[in-house]
C-alpha cells in the first residue's frame, strides 16, 4: 500500500506560517515516501467552523502551490460514525456520563489544593486531571443524571480502558524512513472527555476514526500533539484499528517564544500575501525553497 498522509486543520481562523510549515512538510514527506497527502477539515466546532474559514484554508494552500485529492473529508459530515464509535465504547463499559462543569471541577481542585497545600495532578497539557466525581456515582446516580435531560459529556474510564487494552505503544518515524517504538502512557491524561456536551465527539475520538477511515499510514503533525498520541494509540487498540506511524515536528514560534496560534492572532498567510509576499518567499522562509 502506498503511504497516505493528511493535513487536517481546524477552520476556526485563517492559516498562519505554522500551518504552512506543517502542510509543506506533509507534502515533502509524502513525495519522499512515494505516497500522497489528503486534506481533511476538522470542523466539529460548528460555531467557529465557518464556510469562509474553510474556503480560506483551500485558498491559502492552493496559493502555496499545493494540491490534494478530492473529495475533502469534513468531520461535520461524519457525526454518525463518531456516535457509533462512542456507543461501542459505552457498550464495553469504558465510558461514563459526566455532568460536571469546568467551574465545578476547578472548585474541587482548588479546595483540595487549599486544604492539602499540594498540587493537584495535571495532564501533559497542564490541565488538572478530572477528580472522578461522576465516575464514582452509583448506577442509580448515573441513571438520574441521564434522566434529568441536561447535556452530559462522556468520559473514558481510563483505568478500565487501560485494563482492557493492556500495554500500548505507537511507532514514530523520521522523514528518512527510520521508525521506532514508543511506549504509550495514556493514564497521564486521566478520564478525559471523548464525547463533548455540545457535540457528539471530540478531537481525540474523531481523529482516530478519521485516520482509519481514510487509510492514513503516516501522520506528520506538531510536537504539541505528541503526548496525545498515547490516547490515540489506546483508542486504536480498543477499536482494533490499524495504526499509523507518527512524526512530530518542531513548532514555529513568535518573538516571545510562543507557538504561532490563531487564538493569539498570529499573522495569517492571507495578510502576508496582501503585504506582497509570494509563495516562493514563504517556502524559502520555511526551508522549502
UniProtKB/TrEMBL annotation:
GO molecular function: ATP binding; glutamate-tRNA ligase activity
Any single Pfam family the record assigns to this protein: tRNA-synt_1c
Keywords, alphabetical: Aminoacyl-tRNA synthetase, ATP-binding, Ligase, Metal-binding, Nucleotide-binding, Protein biosynthesis, Zinc
Superkingdom to which the source organism belongs: Bacteria
Regions annotated as coiled coil: none
Keyword Metal-binding appears in the UniProt entry: yes
Chain ranges of the Glutamyl/glutaminyl-tRNA synthetase class Ib catalytic domain: 6-283
GO biological process: glutamyl-tRNA aminoacylation
Cellular component terms per the entry's GO annotation: cytosol
Listed Gene3D superfamilies: HUPs (3.40.50.620)
EC number annotated for this UniProt entry: 6.1.1.-
NCBIfam families in alphabetical order: PRK05710.1-4
Family that this chain belongs to: Belongs to the class-I aminoacyl-tRNA synthetase family.
Protein's name according to its UniProt entry: tRNA glutamyl-Q(34) synthetase GluQRS
Organism: Enterovirga aerilata
Amino acid at each position: 500500500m502506498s503511504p497516505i498522509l493528511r493535513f487536517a486543520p481546524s477552520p476556526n481562523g485563517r492559516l498562519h506560517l505554522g500551518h504552512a510549515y506543517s502542510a509543506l512538510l506533509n507534502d515533502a514527506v509524502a513525495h519522499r515516501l512515494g505516497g500522497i497527502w489528503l486534506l481533511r477539515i476538522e470542523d466539529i466546532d460548528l460555531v467557529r467552523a465557518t464556510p469562509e474559514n474553510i474556503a480560506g484554508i483551500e485558498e491559502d494552500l492552493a496559493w502555496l502551490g499545493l494540491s490534494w485529492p478530492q473529495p475533502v473529508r469534513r468531520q461535520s459530515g461524519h457525526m454518525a460514525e463518531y456516535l457509533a464509535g462512542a456507543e461501542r465504547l459505552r457498550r464495553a463499559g469504558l465510558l461514563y456520563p459526566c455532568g460536571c462543569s469546568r467551574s465545578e471541577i476547578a472548585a474541587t481542585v482548588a479546595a483540595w489544593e487549599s486544604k492539602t497545600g499540594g498540587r493537584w495532578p495535571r495532564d501533559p497539557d497542564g490541565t488538572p486531571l478530572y477528580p472522578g466525581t461522576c465516575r464514582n456515582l452509583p448506577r442509580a446516580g448515573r441513571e438520574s443524571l441521564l434522566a434529568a435531560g441536561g447535556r452530559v459529556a462522556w468520559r473514558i474510564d481510563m483505568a478500565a480502558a487501560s485494563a482492557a487494552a493492556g500495554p500500548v505503544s505507537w511507532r514514530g518515524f523520521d522523514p528518512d524512513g527510520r521508525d521506532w517504538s514508543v511506549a504509550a502512557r495514556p493514564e497521564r491524561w486521566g478520564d478525559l472527555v471523548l464525547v463533548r456536551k455540545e457535540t457528539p465527539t471530540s478531537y481525540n475520538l474523531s481523529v482516530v476514526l478519521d485516520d482509519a477511515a481514510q487509510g492514513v499510514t503516516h501522520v506528520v503533525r506538531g510536537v504539541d500533539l505528541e503526548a496525545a498520541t498515547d490516547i490515540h494509540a489506546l483508542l486504536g487498540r480498543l477499536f482494533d484499528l490499524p495504526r499509523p506511524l507518527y512524526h512530530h515536528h518542531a513548532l514555529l514560534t513568535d518573538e516571545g517564544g510562543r507557538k504561532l496560534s490563531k487564538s493569539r492572532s498570529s499573522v495569517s498567510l492571507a495578510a502576508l500575501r496582501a503585504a506582497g509576499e509570494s509563495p516562493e518567499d514563504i517556502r524559502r522562509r520555511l526551508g522549502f525553497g
